[in-house]
Task: inverse folding
């Protein structure tokens, strides 16, 4: 059985939760491999909607083992709140495994995230203020607190003391904010430890054994390709690697275990936060896409910026991730349009670019070059097969497939679990 990676092929919010849930019946393990509670997946089952932030979407499938990998940064309070919220709805998290090597988001990370964004003013990145970036920063600086530290109160106390010796200086003397009490933080996190202890595991070893036993492991990232710390629209990116290359490091499995890389594409484009967005629509059509598509952040509730499909970005995502199959979501949102523009290239200072410009400056000045395609008026939300789609909808899908450079194997025609047209099996 394969190990497959599920990656966002735009700026996140493409509908990865729906794709993961679709595969749930075939999957043995679902692994979240990066990010924190700045990302979110929405899954609709019947008339029930589930918004997941840290928990892998596999938590909703009773036979699946959900895993939070070492590449994730975890706010334990948020995680336990999410677990409790699902328990109230009859969904158990007893199968959940958490990597002992994952890093913890601490109170000083959240405090510094919020205050630095405020001080940046117009130059702000557009973070969620949840401490994700500072937690990853401390991880790289080798000052992080890991999940395994919850199991040793002595080490935990020492790490908190060392971290706050520096961070309190920054908070009080640079930003004129109140310092954080180390004893209070230790008490809070030891309480988290009691509840999280049964879930902590050497998840890399667990996954290696599962793959040796020919179990199917699905790795899911948060955010999307254009938010990757290395390959995204830097500096308006996340602090980790949501691309397929980050999946191996963030889950602790080698690259030769991967056999499928499934990219998630929305039938148009959205992004949240600051940064360049060539096809963004700031007019009535952009608002129509937002309202019709329900484009509001799962985690933050922020309005998503909306625009037409960008084939340049899709080609880039195919190349960077090695996408083998695409899942195209929200095709139904475009129903009723007479014509549908698609960005096929950019124009920068009179020069055509068929690929993303090399420099940040050029990308910021990129103007979309559009081709228009005929729309369709029919309601496609009850379509069960590709042939059920109107001819113009079929042609639109085939056009995006050709421009993206990888086959579109599944199509979302509505938010429900059963509103998916499978063109060819994803696994």
Result:
């Amino acid at each position: 059985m394969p190990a497959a990676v599920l990656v966002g092929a735009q700026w996140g919010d493409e509908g990865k939760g729906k794709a993961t849930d679709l595969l749930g019946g075939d999957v043995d393990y679902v692994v979240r491999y990066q990010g924190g509670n700045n990302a979110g997946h929405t899954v609709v089952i019947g008339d029930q909607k589930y918004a997941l932030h840290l928990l892998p979407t596999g938590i909703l499938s009773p036979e699946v083992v959900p895993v939070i990998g070492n590449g994730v940064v975890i706010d334990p309070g948020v995680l336990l709140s999410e677990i409790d919220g699902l328990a109230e709805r009859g969904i158990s998290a007893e199968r959940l495994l958490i990597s002992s090597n994952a890093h913890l988001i601490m109170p000083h990370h959240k405090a510094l995230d919020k205050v630095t964004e405020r001080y940046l003013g117009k130059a702000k990145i557009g973070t969620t203020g949840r401490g994700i970036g500072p937690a990853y920063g401390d991880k790289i600086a080798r000052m992080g607190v890991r999940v395994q530290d919850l199991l040793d109160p002595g080490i935990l106390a020492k790490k908190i003391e060392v971290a706050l010796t520096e961070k309190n200086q920054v908070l009080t003397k640079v930003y004129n904010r109140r310092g954080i009490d180390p004893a209070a933080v230790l008490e809070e996190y030891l309480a988290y430890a009691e509840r999280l202890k049964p879930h902590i595991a050497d998840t890399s070893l667990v996954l290696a054994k599962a793959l040796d036993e020919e179990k199917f492991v699905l790795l899911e990232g948060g955010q999307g390709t254009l938010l990757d710390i290395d390959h995204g629209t830097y500096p308006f990116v996340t602090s980790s690697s949501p691309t397929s290359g980050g999946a191996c490091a963030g889950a602790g499995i080698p690259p030769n275990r991967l056999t499928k890389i499934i990219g998630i594409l929305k039938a148009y484009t959205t992004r949240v936060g600051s940064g360049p967005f060539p096809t963004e629509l700031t007019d009535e059509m952009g608002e129509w896409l937002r309202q019709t598509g329900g484009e509001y952040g799962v985690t933050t509730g922020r309005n998503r910026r909306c625009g037409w499909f960008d084939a340049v970005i899709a080609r880039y995502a195919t190349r960077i991730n090695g996408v083998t199959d695409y899942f195209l979501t929200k095709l139904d949102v475009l129903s009723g349009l007479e014509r549908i523009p698609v960005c096929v290239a950019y124009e920068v200072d009179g020069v055509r670019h068929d690929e993303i410009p090399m420099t940040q400056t050029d990308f910021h000045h990129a103007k979309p070059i559009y081709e228009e395609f005929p729309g369709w008026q029919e309601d496609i939300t009850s379509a069960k097969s590709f042939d059920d789609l109107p001819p113009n909808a079929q042609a639109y899908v085939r056009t995006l497939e050709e421009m993206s450079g990888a086959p579109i194997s599944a199509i979302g025609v509505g938010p429900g679990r059963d509103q998916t047209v499978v063109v060819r099996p994803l696994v």
